[in-house]
Amino acid sequence: MPARSRHPAIRIDRAAVPLSITGGLLVPDEDLEWKFIRASGPGGQNVNKVSSAVQLRFLLGQNTTLPPAVKNRLRRLAGQKLNADGSVLIAARSERSQEQNRREALARLEALIGAALVAPKIRKKTRPTRGSQERRIETKKQRGDTKRGRRGSWD
């Protein structure tokens, strides 16, 4: 049964739905903690009554669906969003309704995990070609000749 808010016009469905990431990867709802707080900014009198801002906490240490390499990349990508307890905290407060802020927080988490899923490309060492080396030396010689031509006797 969906949970209801105090306001009868607003229905919030808190059904346990896992977050679906690309490639059939699911983040279970047990790894997500929601906290609803009052948001500052526009909203008129409503802003003082309704907890429309959302804090989404992704319990990274508790998660078992993400591979360890992805977790490490996620820790690196999270930056300031990573807490001391190892969870990722995402705050969304730009929208006026709680449901829109929930969707925005989930979208941000999904984008962050999606970015962590992409393994960085390993750079291969390459050598400059003989032609590029010769062109570089030739332009250096031309530049030196130009500067040498500027020197003159100032008698």
Topology:
Elements: E1 19-21, E2 25-27, E3 32-37, H1 46-49, E4 53-58, H2 68-78, E5 88-92, H3 98-117, H4 130-150
Characterization of the model:
The chain is of the alpha+beta class and 155 residues long. The protein has a domain at 19-117: 2-Layer Sandwich (Double Stranded RNA Binding Domain). It contains four helices and five strands; from the N terminus they run E-E-E-H-E-H-E-H-H. The protein has helices at residues 46-49, 68-78, 98-117, 130-150, and strands at residues 19-21, 25-27, 32-37, 53-58, 88-92. The strands form two sheets. The chain has a three-stranded antiparallel sheet with strand order 3-4-5, covered by helices on one side. A two-stranded antiparallel ribbon has the order 1-2. The longest helix is centred in the last third of the chain and has 21 residues, at 130-150. The termini are far apart.
* Total DSSP E strands: 5
Approximate shape: elongated
State the helix count.
Answer: 4
List the secondary-structure elements in sequence, H or E: EEEHEHEHH
Tell me the helix content.
Answer: 25-40%
- Radius of gyration computed on alpha carbons: 28 Å
Question: What is the fold named in CATH at topology level of one domain?
Answer: Double Stranded RNA Binding Domain
Range of strand content: 5-15%
The structural class is alpha+beta
Question: Could you give a quick summary of the protein structure above?
Answer:
With 155 residues, the chain is of the alpha+beta class. The protein has a domain at 19-117: Double Stranded RNA Binding Domain, CATH 3.30.160.20.
